[in-house]
Write a structure and sequence with these properties.
With about 200 residues, the chain is an alpha/beta fold. The chain has seven helices and seven strands; from the N terminus they run H-H-H-E-H-E-H-E-E-H-E-H-E-E.
């Protein structure tokens, strides 16, 4: 690999924008769980065992395994713009003996699913990577069932980190009502519910 290309990959990894698949090894380094463990994130997702859950931007699948275990009678769908990320996540899930999942390559601004397909959607350090957030939030509302939950987790040192107050405002503009904020200022989960038209 040419040096200029390597530098470009490292710049993308530690700058704003879509995280490069070539750096997935960095996402699995020991110690990551000290900031936000996979069990913590999964435990903050308010879902039933039979829920249908969509994960946007799973990266290496670091959080996917624990969330899939939360819905043993349901299903987890992974969506990412990079097919290489999906392959990495799928391998991790299979290695953990998990089969209740599917993968889908797509841009988050146009979700390739039917209306009201999911009970919950969650993103971990991925919301800030989405350029067209208005389209994504509109699509998220469309594919979520009535009273479905959109769960956004952010933590430092992610370069795309978004503060909870700003995220909350964005969600409210698109018909979501914040339910709870868990964690602290620099590492939090914000859960919001889709409110049907006519509800307040």
């Amino acid at each position: 690999m040419k040096i200029s290309k390597q530098i470009g990959i490292w710049s993308r990894a530690f700058g704003r924008g879509v995280y490069p698949y070539q750096m997935t090894w960095f996402l699995d380094l020991p110690g990551r769980g000290l900031i936000m463990s996979a069990k913590t994130v999964a435990g903050r997702l308010p879902v039933r065992p039979d829920a249908s859950v969509l994960e946007i931007g799973p990266g290496s699948g670091y959080y996917s395994v624990q969330v899939a275990k939360r819905v043993p009678d349901g299903a987890l769908t992974l969506l990412d713009i990079q097919p290489e990320m999906l392959e990495k996540s799928a391998s991790k899930l299979k290695a953990a003996g998990i089969s209740n999942f599917t993968i889908k390559q797509a841009d988050a601004k146009i979700l390739p699913f039917e209306n009201e397909s999911f009970d919950a959607i969650f993103l971990v350090t991925a919301f800030g990577e989405i350029e067209d957030r208005a389209s994504f939030l509109s699509e998220a509302s469309r594919v979520l069932k009535a009273n479905g939950v959109l769960s956004i987790t952010e933590h430092h040192p992610d370069p795309d980190f978004e503060y909870a107050d700003a995220v909350s405002i964005s969600l409210q503009k698109h018909g979501f009502v914040p339910l709870q904020k868990l964690g602290w200022r620099w590492a939090y989960t914000l859960n919001a519910v889709k409110v049907s038209t006519g509800e307040s």
